[in-house]
Write a structure and sequence with these properties.
Blueprint: E1 5-8, E2 14-16, E3 31-33, H1 51-54, E4 77-79, H2 81-87, E5 91-96, H3 106-119, E6 124-128, H4 133-143, E7 147-153, H5 162-165, E8 170-174, H6 178-192, E9 194-196, H7 202-218, E10 226-230, H8 235-249, E11 258-264, H9 269-275, H10 302-312, E12 315-319, H11 321-332, H12 340-354, E13 363-368
Parallel strand pairs: 5-13, 6-7, 6-9, 7-8, 10-11, 10-13, 11-12
Antiparallel strand pairs: 1-2, 1-3, 4-5
Helix pairs in contact: 3-4, 3-7, 7-8, 8-10, 9-10, 11-12
The structure holds pyridoxal-5'-phosphate and zinc ion (ZN).
């Protein structure tokens, strides 16, 4: 069997895939699994098929079994007809990642990370997170009978702790610079044999490929012009782009959409560097946004996202909190309740249409990364009304 490689996205340094390395030992940039250039979709009429069985050809370096799944992926691609005609678009779709086992796309990458960790013989996994990654890793660790070590910011909202603790991980609130924690845990992992499935590790990026694969199938291989991805660390957007590229290499699709990196103006280090035509991102001072899931001031994949966008022909955009809330209302008016970070793509699209950076009649897919019920504190931004009435009077409404 062919030995697969991972390579550095910065300097092309190569390593075997059978190693747990997330950053290049030479230049520190993120590692990435080599492009898989051949493969077919494993069509099945069996409703029990998992995403990894269906796309197994694109994960040739893993042993895949049906039991290793909590039912991640196969999420809906919902057509947003009203919004499409309001915005003058030919097609507009939302990939609804809230329909994953722990209500965000993170489950796709967590599964891949765990399969890799198991293959390499690890018994312990971990992550650094303030949001959706923590419950995802804790949940999958329970499913796979592994010990999990979750490190969170000292200032994490109390309401976010119980939805992680329910899965019984070892949870640490860390005092000190949160930005350094990502790198510190990689050192800790080496010392204590813990496989850290952090935000943009190679196998997490691999998991996000399946979002692109599903979109291709759901659009019957009529590839959209643009895919808008709310980005923080940059792992998900890299994976989605890689997924389209692999399907193109394999001859399954004939073009690749332009990928748009959408951020919140309250924390937009990638957008800033891209607009200033820099190839290195800088730490974003005092991040402050309602879109907490995309609030990383120093994205570990930031430089690679910039390189990837340049190759792909894509670009970046950022939007204000009030535009994000407006987009959340728009989606709710179409029956979809997503968390603020996941409404950023729609806010970005509205802005890009206004500025004519996306042309009329384009076909656009928004990545709705996670569910609305995870961030109920957003309700403070709303002014809801309801009525009280006596039972005898209900016919008077
Ligand atoms: C993690 C996350 C993101 C950002 O993904 P990155 O891979 O860090 O760029 C966006 N939205 C939600 C809901 C998330 O949980
Ligand atoms: Zn390197």
């Amino acid at each position: 069997m062919k030995e697969h490689k991972q390579y550095c996205t910065g300097c092309s340094h190569k390593e075997s895939i059978n190693k747990n390395i997330s950053r290049c030992p030479k230049c520190g940039e993120p590692m990435e699994v080599e492009l898989i250039k051949e493969g077919k979709i494993n069509y099945s009429t069996n409703k029990g098929q998992t995403i990894l069985e269906r796309y197994a050809d694109f994960f040739p370096y893993l042993d895949i079994s049906r039991e290793d799944s909590l039912g991640e992926g196969f999420t809906p691609l919902t057509k947003l007809q009203n919004l499409a005609s309001d915005l003058g678009l030919k097609g507009l779709y939302l990939k609804n990642e809230s329909q994953n086992p722990t209500w965000s796309f993170k489950d796709r990458g967590t599964l891949l990370g765990i399969l890799h960790a198991e293959k390499l013989g690890y018994k312990k996994i971990g992550t650094v997170s303030t949001g959706n990654m923590a419950p995802s890793v804790a949940a999958y660790a329970s499913k796979f009978n592994l010990k999990s070590y979750i490190f969170v910011k000292e200032t994490i909202a109390e309401e976010k702790l119980n939805p992680i603790l329910i899965y019984n991980p070892k949870l640490f609130k860390v005092k000190g610079d949160y930005g350094s924690l990502y790198y510190k845990t990689l050192e800790l992992g080496e010392e204590k044999d813990i496989y850290f499935i952090n935000s943009d590790v190679p196998l997490r990026v691999e998991g996000s490929k399946t979002i692109a694969f599903e979109i291709c199938e759901q659009l019957n291989f009529n590839i959209p012009d643009y895919v808008i991805v709310p980005s923080s660390a940059g792992g998900n957007i890299r994976g989605i782009e890689k997924g389209f590229r692999e399907f193109k290499e394999a001859g399954i699709i004939d073009k690749i959409p332009k990928i748009i990196c959408a951020q919140s103006s309250g924390c937009s280090p990638i957008d800033k560097a891209f607009n200033e035509n820099k190839d290195k991102i800088e730490r974003f001072g005092n991040p402050n946004t309602i879109a907490h899931a995309i609030e990383n001031p120093l994205p570990p994949s930031g430089n690679q996202v910039i390189r990837m966008l340049k190759r792909n022909g894509g670009f970046t955009v950022s939007v204000e909190d009030k535009e994000i809330i407006e987009a959340q209302k728009n989606l709710a008016n179409n029956g979809l309740f997503l968390q603020p970070a996941s409404c950023v793509p729609l806010a970005a699209l509205k802005k890009l249409r206004k500025e004519d950076k996306i042309e009329e009649d384009a076909k656009v897919v928004l990545i709705g990364t996670g569910g609305g019920l995870k961030y109920t504190s957003v309700f403070e931004k709303y002014d809801f009304r309801y009525n009280e009435i006596n039972l005898e009077d209900i016919k008077t409404i």
